[in-house]
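Hello support,

Our group uses your service weekly, and this is the first time we've seen a run hang past the timeout. The protein is Acetone carboxylase. I'm not sure whether the cause is the sequence or the server load. Input pasted verbatim:
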Amino acid sequence: MSLPPSTGDAPICSARGCRAPAEWALRWNNPRLHTADRRKTWLACADHRASLGDFLDARGFLREVAPLAGSPTLDG
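Update from on-call engineer: The timeout came from a worker crash unrelated to the input. Re-ran successfully.
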């Protein structure tokens, strides 16, 4: 799994222009391009979790949304 560039040690949100720390991992694949077991990952902050998830889901790509390890989402 490859993650987007991060600032320091904290992974950042994959939404265009967002530099907020990521709290969620959106795992997806495009069945026309990827095998069924292959997963790509977009990271999302709390503000972009829904919009990134909706974008992937509308295309039938979204497979799983899970809290990102080490994020405040898991602590709360």
